[in-house]
Amino acid sequence: MHKIWRGGTEEGRQWPVSAAVSWSLLLNVSILGLLLLSALIHASWNLLAKRSLDKQAFLWLASLVSLAVFVVPFALAARPVPPEAWPLIFLSGVLEAVYFLLLGSAYQRGDMSLVYPLARGSAPLFVLMFASLFLGEQVRWTGMLGIVLVVAGIYTLHLKVLNLRGLLAPFLSLKDRPSQIALLTGLTIGSYSVVDKVGVGYTGPISYIFLVFSVCSLVLVPYMWLVKSQAIRREWRDNRPSILAVGVMSLCGFLLVLFALTVSQVSYVAPVREISVVFGAVLGALVLREPFARVKIAGSVLIFVGIVLISLAG
Description:
mainly alpha, 0% strand
């Protein structure tokens, strides 16, 4: 390579560097696009889940739909799973099961505008902590600032009025049962995000996602059979189209994130996904007629700036 460029022009000698920079920028933009699409899908299926009757039964049925849809792609792309991958697959599947139970319980008790920001907003903090402790990932100062802005934006989306009492309300509301469950949901999201970052490297996204969803669905079978059998029949009878839609949407969104995790740090990927809170705010305003639009717009601006910083740092 050195001999090839020795007789060229100055512009010619700089071309490989420019091409590398252009390729890196294109890759970052592509990953950002995947994550934005995943965020929109995530907010949309959460809206459908919130509008269901029994949230836990609804989410479990949707997970079965995801498995049914993904059988053929898994069969075509399946490859041998190394022994060291199975503990990670099982752990992620159990965490996904806990996530579905917690999310369903939180939505059963609280509003989407409360549960969704707390659950999704607390996740980046847990991801950053776990990625630093267990994966040894180093976060640049721009990425750290971006993460802070994302979390601050999500906090702002959670505000109802801009006065002292309103500013303290998110902290005071943590005593409420829905808020506590939402925070536990965020902890679960942060946990399985870090596990997925390691696990997907062993099997690839297609095999990994199918096996994780399989473990998740199987782990929940005893609980659903013994406790939720009537609710399951009612949900399937009354909300079948929504169940089918969420099954496909959650699978597609998760797959997009797993592909992004293969080429980017988990401490950057997970926070960028949190723009789903912005989409959730828009859906809440347009579909559920939720108030406080100005505050939610302010929070959206903070999240947007944070995402720009995170993408530059990545």
